[in-house]
Sequence to fold (503 residues):
Amino acid sequence: MTDTTASTPLKRTPLRDVHVKAGAKMVPFGGWDMPVQYTGIIEEHRTVRRAVGLFDISHMGEFEVRGPDALTAVQRLTTNDARTLDVGQVQYAALCYPEGGIVDDLTVYRLAADHYMIVVNASNIDKDWAWVTSQSTGRAEWRNVSAETALLAVQGPKAEGLVGRLADRDVTGLHYYHFARGAVAGVPAIISRTGYTGEDGFELYVPAGQAERLWAALIEAGRPEGIQPIGLGARDTLRLEMKYALYGNDIDQTTNPIEAGLGWVVKPAKGDFIGREAIEALRARGVARKLVGFEMAERAVPRHGYRLMAAGGPVGVVTSGSFGPSVERSIGMGYVPSALSAVGSELGVEIRGATHAARVVKTPFYPSHTKKA
Amino acid sequence: MANVPAELKYTPEHEWAKVEGDRARIGITAFAQEQLGDVVFVELPKVGAKVTAMKTFGVVESVKAVSDLFAPVTGEVVEVNAELPKKPELVNSDPYGTGWMLVIRMSNPKDVDGLMSAADYEKLTAGGGH
Fold:
């Protein structure tokens, strides 16, 4: 029950004081002072699955790139094919090193013909900024707008009704991984039909100075829907039940997109990009290990760093694990040799010196309810 | 302010003990369960196991954290709460009641004299734990 204390002062989102006032338990996360829970992780998790939850994810980073060579820069940096994006579309992708290791995972927004925004993980902002600006060439002007941009996520089956009521435009016609510009409760926003929970919902990019007003308006207007603020604890269990990767846990510079199950966002046919050769060689040769989802036979909880066992010996490592409140069992993700990656493979997880039975299962662990295009 | 029943004895590691003759019923405090958050798994010894005062006897896991459990007294486990494997959330909802963990037959009932009083434990936790 000891919190790790950061050696450098923690960064604060524009809503940090709002969380403290609301009684949130604050923890350091990726260098930020963030709410881990308000009432309880399981209750918050269920609120998102059943009704609607409000998340402050303003710690995420946003970079804009514009100019005649903006698309060329994005194409060179990311693994996915940004050429296929229309204005108003979003795409998930990876940034990779030449050797195929992952710099970060991100979403790419096409804001205008020659204008893109990429959204990166909070703990990677400085690293990513250095990387994209050092690797980008031509007439592409980069701006790090992270500090001036707040990001609120409204997630859950009742998100559409709530955001629709407060928005100055129709949102029901907005498809998954599409966005529109509008105002929500009078606050100018990029209204994006995206999320990290497996539920329908929106991510709202707004000026930092107006985040508090939008937060208060959503909490107030969402009362009939049963809205609650949701901390990072439930954000983690929600994404784990979907087997969404978390950078720093499931993917990092030592893992490649193929073994991480992200081959679907690597598009070699688009032309050259950083890491293409290495990743395609891996795809052709086959990877030695794969990121799988597993469930425990009993309730003991697998955690990041625990060893995965088979035939009495260690075969891999748990990258994420928790009790899954919607699947009501302990679940995890981890890398195992490809021969043990098939659904049904029997594994063990070493927990406090004892091996506990686990089995590779089909993922997501919990069915996705995101809006289909 | 967390609930600290006056009739119980406490450890600085946030376990409580209720003395019943030569036996002690034990669990974790309201303060402890609040700090842990949602309890999802409790690992306890079996009936007949020996536990030693201020040594670990098990583990409580919440969604976010794993914490060791420390025995308030030395002795033999004579009862284990059979509800906890199925309903670990009882540790949160009723830490001094249905969320109890073990009953220990004490080797030395004088062990309880070394435990904290409710007043002392309340002082320990008054700072909020951080």
